[in-house]
Write a structure and sequence with these properties.
three-stranded antiparallel sheet; 14 helices; elongated; mainly alpha; Arc Repressor Mutant, subunit A
Length: 338
């Protein structure tokens, strides 16, 4: 049975989508709309199926999925596609919420922990998914409002009650103390009992995410400065022909990032090449925007930056050969990351 999946027209104006390559946009849209998707945004699909449906090489699919996960958008884990913010784009009504709850109960907990879900709209909690209980459950082993239900019963009754409880939960229940356990302490004890296997993994993931965020922020600051310095210099030379607005500088960051991430250039190589361009009579006129650096002309194999880098390399060799000053030669090489 076919399903209808609506895509907001603002999808194409989203900053993240705007910055993607055509092949990345295709894969992203496919992961949102293929026939195996559901309203939870967590579903099983093979890499082979993804590659077949999209026509994208399997190895390239893997690389793009890794990129999506690094950007905290979509991850692929153990045969599942997991879309981080999918639920928040679903209508908040009883029918949709019931469908989400049913899917959550069938989904591995470690995948649920990665996505953003507003559990206030649901009748279940994130923790309850570990033992299949909802917010209104009367099970005394999950609710912390009663601590010792067997006080006035005989020994045989206690034994039977405990046996049934363990059978229902399929796991050892949290020990119940004679005094009422504060909610926060109970949640900690519950976490230790039922999802302990995921604690270390979550700590590592959060630590890695924090480290990645720090590195990404530092890199973005560097790239912003590179773009600003170049565009400010060009603006001084060519006036209104150059757009050095903060918004345009910000848009230049993904282009510079792709030169490093996809094309293999180093930051010193990028800086040296842009410095060459801004001081060369021909290239200064033809490179007044960073946004066009990864574009290719029809029937050409090289991007604009690759051609510029090649020309800058020839100039560098020529200058080094002409110069008799060893210090100047070292400065030139260092400027290009050589």
């Amino acid at each position: 049975m076919s399903k209808q999946r609506y895509i907001d027209t603002k999808f194409w104006d989203d900053n993240y989508i705007v910055e993607r390559d055509p092949i990345e946009k295709l894969l992203y849209l496919y992961l949102l709309t293929n026939t195996l998707t559901n309203i939870l945004g967590i579903y099983e699909i093979s890499l082979r199926r993804i590659a077949f449906d999209t026509g994208i090489d399997k190895d390239m699919v893997i690389k793009i999925l890794e990129r999506f996960e690094k950007d905290y958008k979509i991850k692929y884990s153990d045969g599942y596609v997991v879309i981080k913010n999918f639920v928040k784009h679903q209508s908040n009504n009883p029918k949709i919420n019931k469908g989400i709850e049913l899917l959550l109960k069938e989904t591995p907990v470690n995948l649920i922990k990665w996505v953003n879900i507003d559990f206030d709209r649901l009748d279940i909690t994130r923790d309850s998914l570990c033992i299949g209980l909802d917010k209104t459950s009367k099970d005394l082993n999950y609710s912390n409002t009663n601590t010792n239900t067997n006080t006035n019963t005989n020994t045989n009754t206690n034994t039977n009650t405990n046996t049934n409880t363990n059978t229902n939960l399929h796991k050892q229940t949290p020990k119940q103390n004679s005094k009422q356990i504060p909610e926060d302490e109970y949640e900690d004890e519950y976490e230790d009992e039922y999802v302990n296997e995921n604690v270390n993994e979550n700590v590592k993931v959060k630590k890695k995410e924090k480290e990645n965020n720090i590195v990404q922020t530092k890199n973005n600051i560097k790239l912003y400065k590179i773009a600003k310095d170049f565009l400010d210099y060009q603006k001084n030379q060519f006036g209104k022909a150059v757009n050095n607005s903060p918004d345009n500088i910000q848009k230049s960051i993904p282009i510079l990032s792709d030169l490093i991430r996809l094309d293999g250039f180093s930051i010193p190589e990028i800086i040296g090449t842009l410095n060459f361009a801004s001081n060369d009579d021909f290239w200064a006129i033809n490179v007044q925007s960073i946004l066009q650096l990864r574009k290719k002309k029809k029937n050409e194999d090289q991007t604009k930056f690759q051609k510029l880098y090649s020309r800058a390399g020839k100039w560098l060799k020529s200058e080094i050969k002409k110069s008799q000053d060893k210090e100047k030669q070292d400065r030139l090489q260092k400027a290009f990351g050589k």
